Amino acid sequence: MFGRDAAEIIERCVKDSVAKFQLESSIGGPLMVLMISKDNKPVWIKNAPTSDPMETTREFMDNYNKGKLNFHFYSRELKREFENKIR
Fold first, then answer.
1. Domain boundaries, the chain
2. Under DSSP, is residue 71 helix (H, G, I), strand (E, B) or coil?
């Protein structure tokens, strides 16, 4: 399956970058991989969330705005840019 192969390559690249730039103290944890099918349905490839999955982009944005999702940003500017895009 293409999604699984891509997920393995991405995970290897992330781990290599973390090691190369010595970011083990700030980046880690399980990598979650979500694929959107041809009929626009979410298909979890790796480490699906244990809570009820979000079905739409609007649901994702609402959950973030309600503080239900925990993201870590490298800078305040990146956080502000992300939040401006999802409002």
1. 1-49, 54-87
2. coil
